[in-house]
Amino acid sequence: MEMIDILAICMIVTSLAVFGLRNLKLSVGIYALQTMILVSIFTMLSVKFSAHQLGMWAVVAFFTKVVLVPTILFCLIKKLSVISEDEPVGGFFVSPVIAMGFSLAIAMSIYPIFLEFSLIKEKIVLIAAVTVFMMGVFGFMLRNSFIKQILAYCLFENGIHLTLALMAYNSHELVELGILTDAIFAVIIMSILAIRFYKAYDSLDTSKATNLRG
């Protein structure tokens, strides 16, 4: 097994940790580690396939997703003085098992389709990309904490970036820059909403906002 495949598997493991860990600071730290692994995969793909555009992706991703996004989330946690998340849907043990089981099953079933359209045909990396993406989707559905749902968005985005790196790394530089920087603005907006939500409900548990249901 090549180093790039091992790193791809590490992305799956770290997505489970970000999803499942109850401590919010630890979850953000693991997310930063996962994004550093993503940057390493970009760099290795750039060298292996002479895809010089991925070298630029790696540099921009390091500053936006390894440095800025975790810094914003750490500041949010410090401002709200929260330590751990509220009880998720299905409990702290069951929901990660459900999310990982379904994410892997979906990734294994649809990756052959994505592989047909990929410029870089790396099976394990593509399976990891889809799995991380699906872990983000399940994060929105199964976690109640506002901060955990922001992290679910970040997982969702890491999965998209890795998929695009395999399928369309040669797209225009402005498109790549826009894809990599949108996370900052999205996380800033969601952080402001989290602060306002906490002031209104004295909690980050989104299930308590029953008055917002239509």
From TrEMBL:
Keywords: Cell membrane, Membrane, Oxidoreductase, Transmembrane, Transmembrane helix. GO terms for cellular component: plasma membrane. It is a multi-pass membrane protein. It comes from the Bacteria. GO terms for molecular function: oxidoreductase activity. The chain crosses the membrane at residues 6-24, 31-51, 57-77, 89-112, 124-143, 150-171, 177-198. Its EC number is 1.-.-.-. This is Hydrogenase 4 membrane subunit. It is found in: Cell membrane. The keyword Signal does not apply. The keyword Cell cycle does not apply. Pfam families: Oxidored_q2 (PF00420). It is an enzyme of class 1 (oxidoreductase). It comes from Campylobacter geochelonis.
